[in-house]
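Proteins fold. Shown next:

***
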Amino acid sequence: MRTLKQFIDSRPRKLAAISPEQSVLRALEIMAEYDVGALLVLDGRKLVGVFSERDYARKVILQGKGSRQTKVSEVMTGKVVYVKQNATIEECMAIMTEKH
């Protein structure tokens, strides 16, 4: 069975990520550059959250905040379900289904 690490290593580009201290505007720029709807939020090498288009819509736009002034850490989703690199794709899919 194929592992998550094997899947990631086979991708032509690296994972899209941002620091929690960067602006929401910068996050949107990175998301557009990578053509993705979410970014990993990394403090150094530690996963501290995820920033998604949903976070932007609900926690920035609908609350009248500015993208230039708001830090990713203020609006990211901090509770992240994750797996280790040696997990199989099937295990990942089962967790995604279970946790929605």
